[in-house]
Amino acid sequence: MRALVLRDGRATVESVARPVPADDETLVEVRCVGVCATDLALAKGYMGFAGVPGHEFVGVARGGPLDGRRVVGEINAGCGTCARCRAGDPRHCEARTVLGIFRRPGAFAEALALPTRNLLAVPDDVPDEAAVFTEPLAAALQIPSQVAIVPGAPALVAGDGRLGILCAHALAEAGAEVTLAGRHPERASLLPAGARLVTGLLESDAPPPAERVYGLAVEATGRADVLPRLLPHVRPGGTIVLKTTTERPVTLDLAPLVVDEITLLGSRCGRFAPALALLASGRVPWSAMVADRFPLEQAPRALQRAAEPGVLKVLVDVR
Ligand SMILES: [Zn+2]
Ligand SMILES: [Zn+2]
After folding, report:
1. CATH assignment, 137-266
2. Which listed ligand is nearest to 34 at the C-alpha?
3. What residues have a C-beta under 5 A from ligand 2, the ion?
4. pTM beyond 0.85
5. If you measure from the C-alpha of residue 251 to the centroid of ligand 2, how many angstroms do you get, rounded to a whole number?
6. Which ligand is nearest to the CA of 80?
7. Is 117 left (phi over 0), alpha (psi -120 to 50) or beta?
8. Of the candidates 163, 137, 165, 100, which has an alpha carbon nearest to the alpha carbon of residue 299?
9. 117 CA from centroid of ligand 2 (Å)
């Protein structure tokens, strides 16, 4: 089968072996894949990755209980036997593989294999182009599953990229009054009702805030210089959620965390069912976020396009 392969800083489309699903796995024929910031980092050599990337997919299950259905799949494949897996949550299984990221070939391919328990059927009224947003939206919805959100309380999201916009929706769904600090005023149209977009707030020349307004702040820029500028906006007792890794280490004076009892909280993958339900509601403007689409044979161009400044979502159509 054909697949995008990353190796030694190069991206090529090649013929590779079709995955053979294990007993507890199902083969999925891929239909559409979203390019994610993680894919761009892997292409640059993050985690020493070599192989087939891609984890934001929709496809058709071949075999198993969902045979013939359109499916999305949670990307962490657990061992199935440890305490975490037996409790139904493989996201922190010590022996996990991660689709297209860690020791499991990914979705920029004609087919992939995932544990059958990871797959969810996509409702008929959710098109493929929306379903590929399930994984990043689930990651955004992980925030309200970790932090109690007070309805009407102000929350600040740093970053008006793909993930920041989805985080704004996740927080607004939970009742927060969302401010998104970004660089693109026109993206205000992508925000949930009642949310606002401000520019300049977290740039290097921004003055320190006169008042600490936010009980909750989310770092979704992936830039190492943002967290130190976010901290002075957070009220004592508040929480900062880190939604992205950064390419270089963050330098931060931790004293304010102690003095003001601020919680710094890491946040990674979320569950898919709430994300699918929110996509089916029609409240997330996924179609306005799709900037470009490429066939699988042009997947390296899709990566280049997604890396261009100002581009939101780029999709790869496999079939
Ligand atoms: Zn992703
Ligand atoms: Zn496990």
Report:
1. 3.40.50.720
2. 1
3. 78-79, 82, 85, 93
4. yes
5. 34
6. 2
7. alpha
8. 100
9. 13
Q: How many angstroms separate the alpha carbon of residue 89 from the centre of ligand 2?
A: 8
What distance in angstroms lies between residue 36's CA and the mean position of ligand 1's atoms?
4
User: Which residue reads 């440890």 in tokens?
Assistant: 82
Supply φ then ψ for residue 94, to 5 degrees: -65, -25
Amino acid at 185: P
Question: What residue type is 115 in one-letter code?
Answer: P
Distance from residue 141's CA to the centre of ligand 1 (Å): 13
- Measured in Å, residue 243 CA sits from the centre of ligand 2 at 23
The answer to whether 270 and 139 are in contact (CB under 8 A) is yes
Instruction: Output the CATH code of domain 2-133+284-317.
Output: 3.90.180.10
**Cα 200 to averaged position of ligand 1 atoms, centre (Å):** 26
> pLDDT per position in the chain (319 positions), as tens?
999 999 988 999 999 999 999 999 999 999 999 999 999 999 998 888 999 999 999 999 999 999 999 999 999 999 999 999 999 999 999 999 999 999 999 999 999 999 999 999 999 999 999 999 999 999 999 999 999 999 999 999 999 999 999 999 999 999 999 999 999 999 999 999 999 999 999 999 999 899 999 999 999 999 999 999 999 999 999 999 999 988 889 999 999 999 999 999 999 999 999 999 999 999 999 999 999 999 999 999 999 999 999 899 999 999 8
Domain boundaries, the chain: 2-133+284-317, 137-266
| Token pair of 13 as six digits | 């489309």
